[in-house]
Amino acid sequence: MSGQVYRLTIYPENDHFGRCYAAASEVAGRLGFDPEEEFRFAVCVSEAYTNAFIHGNKSDPSKSINVVFAWDEEVVRVDVEDQGETKPEALHLDDSRPDIDCEKSGGRGVGIMRLFADRMEVEERQEGGLRVSISFRLRRKNSQVGVLLQKSNGGVHGNQSN
Amino acid sequence: MEIRVTENEDYITLSLKGRLDFASSTNLKEEILKRVAQGKTRIILNLAQIDFINSSGLGTLVSILKEVRLAKGRLLLSNLASYVEEIFEITQLSHIFEIYPSEAEAHEALTASRVNVS
Q1: How far is B43 from chain A (nearest CA, A)?
Q2: Is residue B117 part of a domain?
Q3: Is the pLDDT of residue A25 over 60?
Q4: Do the beta carbons of residue B23 and residue A18 sit within 8 Å?
Q5: pLDDT for A102-135, tens place per residue?
Q6: Partners of A69 in the beta sheet?
Q7: Is the ipTM of this complex over 0.90?
Q8: CB-facing half-sphere around the CA of B67: CA atoms within 13 A
């Protein structure tokens, strides 16, 4: 994907869920998302991050999670990479629906991502761990996002590249 | 997440502010179960200032709902933003939670049920 890339590595310390949420919100703001779009986007990033922390890294405080936002004028993709040993099958991708058994306390995250995102993929990384990729098509009104991005220099703190 | 508790004569209201996610869920559950143990089992959760909730937050609410039911109480939700309400709908949780547009309407529902019982 040619366009903007913003990478950050998050260690599970202090408010690390909040850090992930803040990054998603900032990118959503840059992309001109309205509050509903921002909410869905942030929820998906949060679900992927929470899964990576709990199921991937098994809440191991020594293991980090990479969150990579990449976008152009058509699509924004978010890759969330853990350092665990979980296999993609463990995420129950084929039968994950957010509404399975309302009384259950867990198991909704993947289903929510599949509903809110336009595309979701899971793959094993060569270096170990899983990479969950979620993509969102950008609506026409956001086609000027490239112009906005060129004007924007601050805000998101991390490694950015074109 | 901030939790502001208002104790009324026969029910309590918890007004939540911020994010309801994996990090904040434990605190909320402890706060509510502490009061359930004290016999305060009629609870309104005002979500007006919740600007983010994910599956961890939803799961915690389900878990709290079960505990409140076991104590023969009621847990009502009020003032959900439209996008928060949407996530309750797509997960079908809107079918198991009592959700009201306002705290006043939630209170009215609690009061009405009390009148019906007596």
Answers
A1: 19
A2: no
A3: yes
A4: yes
A5: 677 677 889 899 999 999 999 999 999 999 999 9
A6: A6, A78
A7: no
A8: 20
What CATH number is associated with residue B76?
Answer: 3.30.750.24
**Does the residue A158 lie in any domain?**
no
Answer yes or no: do A112 and B55 touch at CB < 8 A: yes
Residue A24 lies in a domain: yes
A109 to B95: CB separation less than 8 angstroms, yes or no: no
Whether residue B23 lies within 8 A of chain A, CB to CB, comes out as yes
pLDDT at B118: 45
Q: For chain A, what is the domain count?
A: 1
Question: Is pLDDT of A162 > 60?
Answer: no
Collect all residues of chain A within an 8 Å Cβ-Cβ radius of residue B63.
Answer: 105
Residue B8's nearest CA partner among B57, B36, B42 is B42
In a domain, A157, yes or no: no
| CATH, residue A51 | 3.30.565.10
Domain residues for the domain of A117 are 4-150
User: What pTM, to 2 d.p., does this model score?
Assistant: 0.85
Residue A96 pLDDT: 58
Q: Which residue has the tokens 């004028």?
A: A73
Chains A–B, number of C-beta pairs less than 8 Å apart: 75
Contact B84 A39 (CB under 8 A): yes
Name the closest residue on chain B to residue A24, using Cα atoms. B52
Cβ of B21 within 8 Å of Cβ of A50? The answer is yes
- Residue B33 falls inside a structural domain: yes
Domain that includes residue B89, residue range: 2-112
- The CA–CA distances, whole Å, from A52 to A24, A55, A79, B112 equal 16, 6, 11, 45
Q: Give the whole-angstrom CA distance, residue A107 versus residue A51.
A: 10
The string of pLDDT tens digits covering residues A75-105 is 999 999 999 988 777 766 655 565 556 677 6
In a domain, A161, yes or no: no
| Count of residues in chain B | 118
**Is residue B64 in a domain?**
yes
